[in-house]
User: What shape does this take?
Amino acid sequence: MYAVKKDGLAVDSFDEGTIAKLKGHTAIAHTRYSTTGGSHVKNIQPIIVNHRKKPIALAHNGNLTNTNELYARLEDEGSIFQTSMDSEIFVHLLAKTPNGDMAQWLSRVFTQVEGAYSLVLLLGDFLIGARDPHGFRPLCLGRLGDGYIFGF
Assistant: This one.
């Protein structure tokens, strides 16, 4: 995975030279409006990690209401947080939740968080969109040619 992270709008980060260097068929772009965590470069999304030798990228919009509980539990279990965003909680939950069937794995992760959110994930070759069970945050699915687009 390759990341371009800059302050400002997503469109400002991708000039023609940058776009020409990109390879692959999936991407996540995110514009950060800081409500949780500071406006630091380390908090620019997407969050990109490797888990079990597979890349994970995540961009999130929303607020989790049980962050203090989740931070405490995850740190007690050995997590080391790299940012001050509640978005990073999803990455740690993904890593610590037994996986197998992708739908069950993601369901186990999402049932641990409370609040209003939408997010997009790149899990290897899979592009996944999800939102909180009450649909408080918008999440749109569209088509572009033969591909799909998520927006929130």
The mean pLDDT is 83. The domain at 10-151 is CATH 3.60.20.10 (Glutamine Phosphoribosylpyrophosphate, subunit 1, domain 1). The chain has one domain: 10-151.
